[in-house]
Amino acid sequence: MNLWNFEELHETPSQTGGPYVHIGLLPKQANIDVFEHNFGNSLITNETQGQRIRLEGRVFDGLDIPVRDVLIEIWQADANGVFPSRADTRVGKVDANFLGWGRTGADFDSGLWHFETIKPGQVPGRKGSMQAPHIALAIFARGINIGLNTRVYFDDEVDANAKDPVLNSIEWIQRRQTLIARRDERDGQAVYRFDIRVQGPNETVFFDI
Amino acid sequence: MAQVVQGAYAQRNTDDHPPAHTPGYKTSVLRSPRNALISIAQTLTEVTAPHFREDKFGPKDNDLILNCVQDGLPIGERIIIHGYVRDQFGRPVKNALLEVWQANASGRYRHPNDQYIGTLDPNFGGCGRMLTDENGLYVFRTIRPGPYPWRNRINEWRPAHIHFSVIADGWAQRLISQLYFEGDTLIDSCPILRTVPSDEQRRALIALEDKSNFIEADSRCYRFDINLRGRRSTYFENDLT
Prior knowledge:
The complex is a heterodimer of chains A (209) and B (241).
Chain A: H1 21-25, E1 52-57, E2 59-60, E3 71-76, E4 101-105, E5 113-118, E6 123-124, E7 130-131, E8 135-140, E9 148-154, H2 158-163, H3 165-168, E10 180-186, E11 189-193, E12 196-197, E13 207-208
Parallel strand pairs in A: 1-11, 2-12, 9-10
Antiparallel strand pairs in A: 1-5, 3-4, 3-8, 6-7, 8-9, 10-11
Chain B: E1 5-9, E2 38-39, H1 44-47, E3 78-87, E4 97-102, E5 127-131, E6 137-143, E7 148-150, E8 156-158, E9 161-167, E10 175-181, H2 199-203, E11 206-209, E12 220-223, E13 226-228, E14 231-234
Parallel strand pairs in B: 3-12, 3-13, 10-11
Antiparallel strand pairs in B: 1-14, 3-6, 4-5, 4-9, 7-8, 9-10, 11-12
């Protein structure tokens, strides 16, 4: 401890979530029926405003093998770009039927994961800028010492993406593509595919936030 | 007079954390990015986080001794773990979601992928959750987990530990880690704990015996505080808008 400075605490260090992260964070995936209310991969109810989308993908390691024990969380604004959080001063206008947050685990066999959510609205950026619609996404797994933060953008938001301050802050222009989810339609539903490559030639951009 | 406005979370001190690539913990080699993280100026996305309402929690959610009982009490040492969640400036973090998971007294996890010979306990699930109170205090009750072997080097053993996860006021505060127990002789050689780069920070993951709070004829107690990132106070302008 410094005697010549004011005291500031060090952040508690991160450790891997380990292979059994599901027990604590998705007990039903570990076949444990313990809580009455469980967190999950659906962020919506029938009353939620906005365009329904399915966000899906896989996470690949440095050998291009699916990470089948990965845990994924997302955090996003509602259809009008407001976050259901006390820290958003516009929270009074938020869609009361939208939690904004979800969590899921990859399928133990295929490595596939998905969320049922809505397409977020645009969110203000810094200094009067506007951010393109995006979803914050974090992954935790065995072998990942500190959670990896990335963002999901949408390939049908070309104009908004071109003006997005965070995308534009990525100096390596070709790497911006790793953050763009690809739209498809399946049984009349919009499906966005977002594969994450933890390592390798097409390594996903991860952020220090 | 200038008004105090909450600004961005102070930059994360990366030296407080393990790097992504730590060859002593072999699984990290193929699961670590090779490019530098891209540092971004925080926006509303990073300074906001979900709320969790108290009415979504059950009375036994933070009682791992009772929350999965079938036909009796789980086997093992009864312990209470408590402590404060604070931000780096010492402010209490209220209403934070703390989730915990662990092996049972035999070192076995109730998980389809755990094949260790240590026995499952029919009365123990190994998971719990709670919200911090107005002072940032949390408490849960559990069975002390056992150490267990794992595949890294051929004869590798994890010290007894409890995994924990915190969701607080901002996405930038999201943290997952593990707490260990004072006096465990396996701590010094653990390749996972050794991914943390300094002695001081490794010590920050060791829960200390709290004799004053032992409950007579019932449970021992450990104290474990958690520190998260904090928001800067900016006196002149809100740098987030």
